[in-house]
Amino acid sequence: MPIQEIMTKRTAVKIGGMHCAGCVNSIQKHVTELNGIKSCEVNLATEKAVLEFDPNVVNISAIEKAVEEAGYKVIYEKLSVKIGNITDSGDAVKLENKLRRLEGVKNASVNFGNSQVFIEYNQALLSLSDIRQTITQSGYQILSEDLSASAEEIEAKKLRKLFLLGLAFTVPIMILGYPEYLPFIPLTGTTGSSYILFACASVVQFVVGNRFYVGAYRIAKMKSANMDTLVVTGTTAAYLFSAFNTFPTPAWHNIYYDASSVVITFIILGKYIENKTKGKASSIVRKMLELQPKVTRIKKEDQEIEIPIELLRPGDTIIVRPGERIPVDSSVLDGHSAVDESMITGESIPVEKKPGDKVIGGTINREGILVIKAVNVGSDTMLSQVVKLVEEAMGRKPPIQRLVDKIAGYFAFIVMGIALATFLGWYIISPAGVHVFATALVPSVAILVVACPCALGLATPTAVMVGMSKSTQNGVIFKDGEALEILGKIQAIVFDKTGTLTQGIPQVTDLITLKQIPLKSNRDDEINNENKMLEIAAIAEKNSEHPLAKAIVRKADEIGLKIDEAKEFFSVPGKGVTAHHNGNNILVGNTRFMQENGIDVKPIEESMSKLQQEGKTVMVVALDRELVGLVALLDIPKKSAKATVQALKKMGIEVMMLTGDNEKTANTIAKEIALDRVIANVMPIQKTEVIKQLQQNGKRVAMVGDGVNDAAALTQADVGIAIGSGTDIAIEAGKVVLVRDDLNDVVSAIEISKKTVSKIKQNLFYAFAYNIVLIPIAGFGFLYPALAGLAMAASSVSVTSSSLLLKRWNPPSKKN
Hints:
Strand content: 15-25%
Number of strands: 30
Number of helices: 27
Radius of gyration: 34 Å
Distance between the termini: 65 Å
Strand order of the largest sheet: 18-30-29-28-19-26-27
Structural class: alpha+beta
Oligomer: single chain
């Protein structure tokens, strides 16, 4: 029997019906009990569950069923599209099947009679753009779209209606419920008015408050408790006690309908405001999707044709006029202009573009006309990748959130215990009489109502949402919440040298030969000995991807040398290359590489030392195991390197350079940028060991590299930072991706991390302090249930509003 391959699939689903951290814990617990589920992280603020599972063991349908069994539902967006060019029912069936095969589509139906397409899809897995693209690529024209209201909009409308209904029936309760204070109001204090109170309170309790009963029931089935449990327990107790004292003759001093109705109405109002503020917190990322234009102009057979963006293909020639947005990631064919990339990279100054330069989809062409060639389209564009990465990152909880979720899991039980103890305490110490039960009940209800697990549940995810949105605006992408939390706590930061601290475009500066090279040149005219050496070095390095190799080949091209293909090529990472050409064995590399191949390097040590002290990297060239000369290259530091190192030092972070280059060259570069510690002569496979050693010394370490050559070291570090990825931001290594090739963004990333974590702590302090202060006040009878309901509603709103204040903040490094 064949062994089935173990796979891990990652997906996300939107979940409706969650109110607090208790709901989050229930869903996570129930779903993770399924066989094949490796992890499940539910985010209250984004209302999404991010799952990792083995598709051979469990499928998405089983996961949805588990969510529903827990008492919640998976939310799907609905889209209705009218299409053209559909000729018969066969076309309808083919398109329907094609749409159903898309990952994220729950249901798709195509009606040939009215040319209507109806789709239910998971917005977390599939974008509207992907659906449009599938339809247009199938040869059909989209005539109109009708996107149904989002789940957030539908929920907001429901809450608004419920609040208005609750308000309509709560106002009479407030007017008629205080006969001793409002005796001049008709009917107050009469039996008839008590029955009116009962009727109004019943509507509020069981119609407006129905969602709390549903929530309490489903969480009880999971043998747990949450905010719904507290609200239902408290308000039902007040309602039933009041109803008991209403019939047959009202005992006015024991009627507390306002304690239930006002509480429910205020909490519904709080939920409505919370829904709106949560929407604002996530709106920055959603707005990024709107940056892409819906139509664009392409050049076809000397004509300009306007087409929907979904029909663009790689290689299409696009015309972009001043003021228009660039539709997709492209390269410039013709024209000069300045492009505003601030919305993608955080760069405030428009970037000059000329033929050969890359432009990013969604950015704005400010000046001249650009003729560009489409490179990445659809879900491959940088804009799509950014949105996908950020939304995924928002679903991955930071460690602090996992701790809060555990506390919140016990919170409701603790509060119910305190409320019961308070009731018994008041009942025992109150003097015997008619009102002893009411005296004990009111503070107990106040405790149940004022306690707010919602604020605890929202404190971290709302701050993370806004923090990640803010980082995206500044060209910094955190791949998960853990990186966002840890980056601000790092004690040491390690930079790769070539291409990270330096520009990564080394130039050949010196060619030194030791002997006459007997080889004939590929050029017709006679060339000098130095250029002969450069030619053989370029032949050996032609197939290498190393920046130094490319610099040698580029120099040979510049002076017109013809670079033949080597018959055999072998690269030794961190050392050099060997190649065979015309019967000769060519070696190009460092001194260690030469010594390993039995070549004596003493004759060149003095020349090498002098060049290295100038900050140059020296490559040794040997032909048939004999030294023929040296090629010296200089890679100068980036303009932002020194300022970045100084800023990091001011933060108290130890800064060091890690390089495979020799110590003299590395120290010269380090001195130029005021960097104190250098770890040189490190092979690529040894970089991971250096990071491990630093970690074993008790330091939290960040590693900054290019995300490809430094992949292992980036993964080993507590936080790996991949810099200057440009449009290729989906680099696997690195938990933080910097879109621009600007070292200042490393400082910005740390500042954003520190500020976001500070905001999380502030929110948690508010949430805990609120409960620690108000629960005793309620228990001692100083907080009436109606005011407790108002306080509870205000607490969760205040936490989300506090997180929204991050929108106004900008990293200090960006102000300089």
